[in-house]
Amino acid sequence: MNKEQRFCQSCGMPLTEDVLGTNADGSKNEDYCMYCYKDGKFLQDCTMEEMIEHCAQFIGAVNEGLEKPITKEEYIGMMKTYFPQLKRWRQTLIVSNDEDMNAKAAIKREESELVSIPECEQARPKVNPALAGVKELIAKMADKLPIAYISSVDQDGFPWTKAMLKPRKREGIKTFYFTTNTFSIRVAQYKANPKASIYFCDAKGFKGMMLRGTMEVLTDATSKEMIWHKGDEQYYPGGVTDPNYCVLKFTATDGRFYSDFYPRSFVIE
């Protein structure tokens, strides 16, 4: 059986034994090619964007293996989506839940990568411009988009997704409140398994935001009164005390967004 195809975790080129990079002790490195990594060090001191520009010049060689040639611009677009998944460029954006929308975000690299980064570089992380404004984007999508999609897990471990009216209330970008029916399948699923996700989609702007976390079902009077709106009687005839009216409290832990042709993961603290 053939081994699964591997790719350089720096430039994305296919990895074979004859192009493997080397570790500090001279042994073969299984993650990087010889053009990116030698003697335990990267050969280029560059950003991900600079590496993409470097690789784009080889579009001719790329097209030799394709039935339908692609343009250099198309290749760059593909790399912008693919490269953030490579080990060298993989980053997690730490987003503060502080209400101050001007709070600074920091990049936290995986511990495995910190070993190869000088301490001076660790102290001054380079923030990718594509990561800017994540907090503002979450808040804007949650407040402006009329529909949100929430997902639960059924008894067989399969996801269930449902369109909901936008959150009635949010606390920063970590906690969101929705209204729903107490006797719904969704509530039963959340009570059995609180794992959940919510998704906001801006089709016109070609942006998507997924938040992952847990969902709590609240039936206490304070919570129900907190997000009750005039006119909700059309959904819950019994008013705010209607037994079929409850609150879903979603608490986010992390997520992933797609904007400006960049997919990025982030953690909310």
Q: Could you say which overall geometry the principal axes of the C-alpha atoms support?
A: elongated
What structural class do the secondary elements suggest?
Answer: alpha+beta
In round numbers, the mean pLDDT is 85
Helix content: 10-25%
Q: Major beta sheet, specifics?
A: 10 strands, mixed
Strand share of the residues? Answer: 25-35%
Using the CA coordinates, give the radius of gyration.
23 Å
Tally the helices: what do you get?
A: 8
The count of β-strands is 16
Q: What order do the SSEs take from the amino end to the carboxyl end, as H and E?
A: EEEEEEHHHEEHHHEEEEHEEHEE
Q: List low-pLDDT spans.
A: 100-131
Task: Quote the distance from N terminus to C terminus.
Answer: 45 Å
Can you describe this structure?
With 269 residues, this protein is α+β, with helices and mostly antiparallel strands. Helices cover 22% and strands 34% of the residues. The protein contains eight helices and 16 strands. The chain has helices spanning 48-56, 59-64, 72-82, 111-114, 119-123, 134-144, 185-192, 221-226; strands at residues 6-7, 14-15, 20-22, 28-33, 37-38, 41-42, 91-95, 106-109, 147-153, 159-165, 169-171, 175-181, 195-202, 207-218, 245-259, 262-268. Strand 3 (20-22) and strand 4 (28-33) form a beta hairpin. The chain is elongated, with a radius of gyration of 23 Å.
